[in-house]
Design a protein that fits this description.
By secondary structure, the protein is mainly beta. 10% of the residues lie in helices and 43% in strands. It is built from three helices and 22 strands.
């Protein structure tokens, strides 16, 4: 069938949830948080996503199979700001595109760039069907323009099929200037860690493929600094010690970041699981030709609890200047585009077991 598109307008969103579309088991309902941020609740037969159509096209919350997938955060609602840490705790955020990561010496870009809370001028819902069944796609479009510097169009999309437990996420960036554009990207996917879960991923768990960023904040008490350094040193020697999630033996306060080189399967996809004690799994897959690196960010502070088991990206998280030094900048030619594709969500036990076998086949 041909796709049917509905353009979204801010006036569709109010305090009371308003059903906009019903397409078989798929529904999309609009509401507005007390903060004023517009949100869409997209449901299928297996779960739901809460998407912010005009603010970064973020997935603010995700739940499937009775599992709340999203990190623990102190923010109970998104706030209307472009300041990254003043509205933090969404399930999935686009980061980039002119720069990404923590600004370092010589950098002037905001934390993780302009994309995470970028205002979208246009947002829409599309309904369609193909050989995989019926689906709803939430998408948007906006232009980012700084005179004499950068001009691009961003077109993200989130597609959910009627019986799926994973969302398909894409982003297209088109360079609208007549000069090439520097490009960086990271997809910040924030699951909730589960004690006694296991991390299974298509990369070799050795120091050659897993790089520990041994950054210890100096504002920590000296004893806490020493504990964190000791755990980082142990991880650097044997990355496998973090595969079993365990708050009693692991230290992620305030965070630990690892850069991991993933291997792809025959179709070009890398895979990562947090295999839960009940046999189901949190899941991410991405294309290594588009996103050659996977960062792992784990933060368990007591106030925040986040398992960024893989943040697919083009570069490490040290900012624009360091990415240039590392040769990790990508370029979009004048008038050209880049497209990124990944999948994130939850797998029921039988599919999680099958995917664990796929991963084992990739890494041998």
């Amino acid at each position: 069938m041909d796709e049917v598109k509905m353009n979204l307008l801010p006036e569709y969103f109010c305090d009371r949830e308003n059903l906009l579309i019903q397409f078989g088991p798929l529904t999309a309902a609009a509401f507005r948080y007390p903060s004023g941020v517009c949100a869409l609740r997209v449901r299928n037969s297996c779960g739901e996503l809460i998407i912010l159509p005009f603010q970064g096209q973020q997935i603010w919350r995700a739940s499937f199979g009775g599992h709340d997938l999203t990190m623990k955060t102190a923010f109970d609602q998104p706030l209307p700001t472009q300041d990254y840490l003043r509205t933090y705790g969404g399930f999935l955020l686009h980061c980039g595109a002119t720069a990404m990561g923590v600004p370092g010496a010589g950098d002037s870009h905001p934390l993780h760039g302009e994309l995470p809370n970028l205002p979208y001028e246009k947002a829409m819902i599309q309904c369609g069907a193909n050989e995989r069944g019926r689906y709803l796609t939430v998408g948007g479009m906006t232009e980012y323009l700084i005179g004499f510097t950068v001009h691009y169009r961003a077109e993200p999309a989130i597609r959910l099929y009627e019986n799926a437990t994973c969302a398909e996420i894409s982003l297209k960036i088109t360079n609208l200037r007549t000069q090439p554009m520097e490009f960086m990207y990271l997809c910040h996917i924030n699951f909730r860690p589960v004690d006694e879960a296991r991390l299974i991923y298509s990369a070799h768990a050795d120091p050659e493929h897993v790089k520990i960023h041994a950054d210890v904040p100096l504002n920590l008490p000296l004893e806490a600094q020493a504990r964190l350094r000791a755990y980082m040193a142990a991880l650097a020697e044997n990355p496998e010690i973090h595969h079993r999630v365990n708050t009693a033996t692991q230290i992620y306060d305030p965070e630990i970041v690892m850069a991991i080189r993933y291997e792809a399967d025959a179709d070009g996809n890398a895979h990562c699981l947090q295999l839960l004690p009940d046999g189901s799994a949190h899941y991410v897959s991405f294309r290594t030709e588009q996103l050659p690196l996977g960062l792992r960010w784990i933060s368990r502070t007591g106030d925040e609890d986040a398992m960024g088991m893989v943040l697919p990206c083009t570069a490490e998280h040290k900012g624009l200047t360091q990415a240039r030094k590392n040769g990790q900048i990508r370029w979009i030619p004048a008038g050209g585009s880049v497209s990124l594709n990944l999948k994130a969500g939850w797998l029921e036990p039988a599919e999680a077991a099958r995917m664990a076998e796929v991963i084992q086949g990739v890494i041998g």
